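Input sequence (79 aa), recorded before submission:
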Amino acid sequence: MRKRWISLALVAAMTIVLALVAALLRGGHASAAPKAGFTACLVTDIGGLNDHGFNHLAFLGLQEAEKAAHITGNVFQSK
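Predicted structure, token format:
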């Protein structure tokens, strides 16, 4: 039983080491920067943008995301 746990620990350690080596060979760093040309869309319900509820808050969030993340936002109002 003890030998089995040691074998599992060895396999786990080797997996981690191989993942680190692979990451270093690829360049290593994951980027959280937004991709150029990303477009976010907001579709309202019949309440419209100034319903002082969900639609209004979603629109404010979209405007904030446009400034902070430099994305393009589209708004489609349902009728």
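Checked by second reader. The radius of gyration is 24 Å.
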